[in-house]
Amino acid sequence: MTDLLITNARPMGGMKADILIKDGRITAIGEKLAADGVPVEDAAGRIAIPGLVDAHTHLDKSLLGYPWYVNTVGPLLIDKIDNERNVKREYGLDAHVQSMRQSLQSVGYGTTLIRTHVDIDTDQALVALEGVMETRRQLVGVVEIEIVAFPQSGLMRRPGTAELLDKAMAMGADLVGGLDPCGMDRDPKGHLDTIFAIAEKHGKGIDIHLHEGGELGAFSMEMIFERIRATGMQGKVAVSHAFCLGLPDWNVSQALIDTCAELDVPIFTTAPPSREVPSLKRLHAAGVRFGAGVDGFRDTWGPYGNGDMLERAMLLGMKNNLRRDDELAMALDVCTTGGALAMDRHAHALKVGGRGDIVLVEGESVGEAIVTHQPRKLVVTAGNIVARDGASLRARP
Amino acid sequence: MTDLLITNARPMGGMKADILIKDGRITAIGEKLAADGVPVEDAAGRIAIPGLVDAHTHLDKSLLGYPWYVNTVGPLLIDKIDNERNVKREYGLDAHVQSMRQSLQSVGYGTTLIRTHVDIDTDQALVALEGVMETRRQLVGVVEIEIVAFPQSGLMRRPGTAELLDKAMAMGADLVGGLDPCGMDRDPKGHLDTIFAIAEKHGKGIDIHLHEGGELGAFSMEMIFERIRATGMQGKVAVSHAFCLGLPDWNVSQALIDTCAELDVPIFTTAPPSREVPSLKRLHAAGVRFGAGVDGFRDTWGPYGNGDMLERAMLLGMKNNLRRDDELAMALDVCTTGGALAMDRHAHALKVGGRGDIVLVEGESVGEAIVTHQPRKLVVTAGNIVARDGASLRARP
Q1: For A135, phi and psi rounded to 5 degrees?
Q2: Mutate to test the interface with A, among B64, B66, B71 (most CBs of A within 10 A)
Q3: Which of the four, B119, B311, B318, B348, has the lowest number of CB atoms within 10 Å?
Q4: Which candidate, A364, A392, A397, places its Cα nearest to that of A376?
Q5: What pLDDT digit, counting tens, does each position of B17-58 carry?
Q6: Can you tell me where the transmembrane regions are (chains A, B) (predicted)?
Q7: Which of A323, A362, A365 to probe by mutation at the B interface, max B CB count within 10 Å?
């Protein structure tokens, strides 16, 4: 079933309309559309929004389904990375099972498109990638999953990792990942040259984690910019987190943002309350593509989160001090159509010709839907009903 | 009914125990306590925590019960303040009804103690105060409400306000409020001298809103310190928000924090993701009393929030980058016993001799209870059952 007629919906909180999906695409939005044998769902006046887009997460490592993880980890980044590898081994964590659990939980929340960073390291090699790829196969038609081959434990500091990334790309990962070329890998030139070379070899893009703050992050950004120019990879290299774009020195951060616009570098945020972050309005004004994600959650890194991108839109709004309804609509766009655009998906929109990914949400307005993020009534992926009343139709393992 | 035996609870997520409340006080915590005719509630292994404490809110001005408020307000503080007075007039907002609605919603979330700042201005004079005082009378035994007489629209800039504050204190407000002596009132000396004089006259404390950031906030803090020393009001003057304590310059902010400790100035936060805030761990290390609140919500200022202090503990944790379970326990303390201590309530604790305010929450651990903040199973105020399954027993108007 990839045809569906949704009646009595309020697209983006506006006037009531029917939405007709045929062959997975929206073919009409209007009053009293004819069903013509297509299955019908009555939205009963609920708001219709595009499928939510989780543009930055880690499907392979949540501890969903396990007892509560009592976190006693140390304060440093390396403490968390080493602890995670140990816990994974101890638990025998199965990336396929965990990614199924998280993906289906996210589907229940209305997410229809996910970009996930999957750990590639010399401990577990490509096992997590295989697991997430199996999840991707099983969930075709339910949720789209884009995979970044992610050197979580470092690249230059762990010989053999680059070769694994290369293999990961050959196996079918969509993008090459990276991580804090200075702060983590202590060799920004080596790190960036390596990931750009792998990306070029496979004709794929890059999405690099950059937690480095302040001037250090700015330095790494500049080194990324230099390589985009040198390789002609404009539009193909994204930066996740990019805390340095929130640098208080306006001149420094604005120069970085302007260069992101010039070189078409999409930015992905998780809107963490505890850090300086790229400003939604500022990136919007500069024309930088911008998406958001839930990041990892309920894992060894931290306890927060549940996969809900509507709640993330709220956090994004709170972080950016968005109070007006028109501002809240911008936050929702980042978590739907805008986030998809930042992932080069141009048809993820609630319009004729757009992909038939629709979520029915509760509230008088888009603002109320974001703020209260009540259970989603209906989730539709390319015309398929995949979740009802907050839960995916397919049971979690 | 002020006697109650709660069986099979896990106090603070620990081992199972019964909790006996007599005459509104906890008289025993232990295994297999005898009921002796006291009503019994089976916690069925749920976690028991102390009543949640909302130490900073605005009961008189939420728009709960009204249609969604479409916010189109301007960017300045004064835009929001002027807009609010206009909307209040237009809606004919009834502070008694609104404060009943919010208080009972909060009770459903497990809040048993509230400090509310009530608007006093030359437009509405003491009407809001009368309304909230009526709510306080009606909710005796359900939730304790402490009232701050709050000059939301300014003090020196609106002649007649000081006289109204004086009357408010005579009527029974508990504390004198204040608001941004520089940023809002443009006369820090006049503002602070006035509120300290009213507080001294009535023998009451002060709780002043200080949104002023950076060095401006630091300046206002110093002027507050000078007056505490001059009047001998150590321990009687609290500062809400106190964003300046989050100043990045460690020397400046640490000097302020140390003086808060020296003069026993309690700090109240709402943990806004968009601002620099006082650090939980840093205040804790310095020995500064620290509470948290939900602030105003669903009002003309902004759309976020619902009154849930367990969700606020999560936001406090996210803002302070707390990830370990022992750190999450600190966040919960700020939202319960610690917040009450900052309000000079020394018996608000889950221990023998403590007030019989108990909330049963869901989760394997306190961390999970905070992170998932599921509906509260049971809320008990001084031995009275006041809410079940997320809703107060008393219906909202």
Answers
A1: -60, -45
A2: B71
A3: B311
A4: A392
A5: 999 999 999 999 999 998 889 999 999 999 999 999 999 999
A6: none
A7: A323
